[in-house]
Amino acid sequence: MPHLKKNTHYDFRRENNTLLSATDAGLLPAKGSGCEKDAEEYNMCHPRRGVALIFNHNYFDHMANRSGTAKDCYNLSVELELLGFEIQVYKDLSYTKLSGILMGST
Questions:
Q1: How many CB atoms lie within 10 A of CB 85?
Q2: Do 56 and 100 sit in the same domain of this protein?
Q3: What CATH number is associated with residue 71?
Q4: Which residues contact 12 (CB under 8 A, 6 or more apart)?
Q5: Residue 87 is part of which domain span?
Q6: Is this prediction's pTM over 0.85?
Q7: Does residue 50 come out as left (phi exceeding 0), alpha (psi in the -120 to 50 range) or beta?
Q8: pLDDT tens-digit readout, 39-87
């Protein structure tokens, strides 16, 4: 089974623009072939991947603003969606709000 390479764009779409499953792409073993719940890698053998939380912080109280975070957030959202994740993006949250979201997502 091939490993994904860092900084490489992978296109998981078929010719008719539908998503190709990671198993069909040869990136995952067939269902029932050993995806363990406690594996070191994230279990991608099920059709519903789960929720990906993205925390995009551009503005800070005591630091310079970080330009380019919107593009990074968009690119990450696109890639995670291609992998079948439900995406939830949060922008410039306070520590209290971010903590509340993390506590509620478990």
A1: 19
A2: yes
A3: 3.40.50.1460
A4: 19, 20, 21, 22, 25, 82, 83
A5: 51-104
A6: no
A7: left
A8: 777 777 777 788 999 999 988 878 877 888 999 999 999 999 988 899 9
